[in-house]
Design the sequence.
């Protein structure tokens, strides 16, 4: 016997391998109204009569039980089912699964290892009986395997992570480019990349050298002027002597 307390906010419930009371689960009642996933694998279930109303339930696992009929109850209790696993139960006739055509949202049905799956035309007959389902025992009409929802979600997460990483990489590259541009501007403004005290000292030394050059140039000009004056004086002296000789 297995007793469950109602938890109104529970969305997923797994009670696999628990012991049922004469094929029913005691305490599993209408309190679980928010359930979207229910798994009752190998619990000795024989009937769905006491299955509570689970109008939000999307996925129901009932494999490895002893269910032989009463599937019409699912239309009333779980009208929004998308996935139903009845593998390894005691379902023998097509008429037993025919009520499932009233589950308008049902896309995947598993009847593997039930007596109904033995005939060679089993798959063709089920797809004809339930034309709205896409997958039977994990494969579609063209024998293409159904994708696993967990893998699909993993791929989406990787794509999202890749896009985020690419976004942040682009952002880092933009920041690096901006920093490089700023450094180039600073380099252009600073002569020969010299900054601080060393640059100022060099500038001061250059100014002193320019002053020395100016002083030397002035001294050279003054010496030239004195030399020219002396030359002119000697020339006048010779001219005066020549004039005296002429007078005599």
Sequence:
């Amino acid at each position: 016997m297995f007793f469950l307390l109602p938890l109104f906010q529970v969305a997923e419930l797994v009670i696999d391998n628990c012991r049922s009371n004469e094929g029913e689960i005691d305490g599993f009642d209408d309190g679980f109204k928010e359930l979207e996933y229910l798994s009752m694998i190998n619990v000795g279930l024989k009937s769905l009569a006491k299955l509570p109303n689970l109008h939000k339930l999307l996925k129901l696992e009932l494999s490895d039980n002893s269910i032989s009929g009463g599937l019409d109850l699912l239309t009333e209790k779980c009208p929004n089912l998308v996935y139903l696993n009845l593998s390894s139960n005691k379902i023998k006739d097509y008429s037993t699964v025919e009520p499932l055509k009233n589950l308008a949202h049902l896309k995947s049905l598993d009847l593997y290892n039930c007596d109904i799956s033995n005939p060679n035309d089993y798959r063709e007959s089920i797809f004809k009986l339930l034309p709205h389902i896409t997958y039977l025992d994990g494969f579609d009409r063209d024998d293409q395997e159904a994708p696993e929802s967990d893998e699909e979600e993993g791929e989406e997460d990787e794509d999202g992570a890749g896009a985020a990483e690419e976004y942040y990489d682009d952002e880092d590259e933009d920041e690096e480019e901006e920093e490089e541009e700023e450094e180039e501007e600073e380099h252009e403004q600073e002569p020969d990349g010299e900054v601080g005290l060393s640059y100022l000292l060099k500038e001061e030394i250059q100014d002193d050298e320019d002053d020395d050059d100016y002083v030397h140039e002035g001294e050279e000009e003054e010496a030239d002027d004195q030399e020219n004056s002396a030359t002119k004086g000697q020339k006048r002296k010779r001219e005066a002597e020549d004039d005296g000789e002429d007078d005599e």
User: Anything to note?
Assistant: Residues 7-136 form a domain with the Leucine-rich repeat, LRR (right-handed beta-alpha superhelix) fold (CATH 3.80.10.10). The longest strand covers residues 12-14. Helices lie at 73-77, 94-97, 122-129, 149-189, 196-247. Residues 196-247 form the longest helix (52 residues).
